[in-house]
Amino acid sequence: MSDYKHTIPVTGIIENGGKFLFIRRSRLSTNMPGKWVFPGGKCEKGEDVIEALYRELKEETGLSFTNDIAFLSSYQFLRKEDQSSSEGLVFLVRSKDKTVKKNFSGEEYKWINPEDICDYEFKYDDIKDFDIENNVTIPGMEVHVRNAFIILKKNMLLDRRLFSVTKYQKNKCTRKSNCTSWKL
Length: 184
Fold this sequence. Notes:
Distance between the termini: 42 Å
Largest sheet: 9 strands, mixed
Shape: globular
Structural class: alpha+beta
């Protein structure tokens, strides 16, 4: 048996009032220090993807969310250094408010209009002993926002409770039983 490890990262493109949330990671972070990203994290053992997404988004932002959700895309990558693999999933979600908690995991956050994303530059001061660029753009992130904007315009959001396999299993629903113990 090998030490092969597989993870499922989940990412949330958070929308509120037509703007999208971007978070700048800590400059001390080992993973993409100082970069602007969408919030997210990894599924824990026994957790379904939708539960993991909302848990991670709540932990990272402190925001409250509606039940609106849409699947945007997936991605895969392999790490040669530790022989691990990941299958990431990206979702569009909607927040009920725009006030990110002060103790969130990033250094800064911004709500950005979709039309401003392609050419948006984020500037910050140089940091000694770190190899961080002075001007950071958001390569490729505009694709997610464009797709999210299309979904919003076409009103193609679904109710997240329809996707929770774990809730279904916890209520011991089967084809033969009447699953009225939980409601949408």
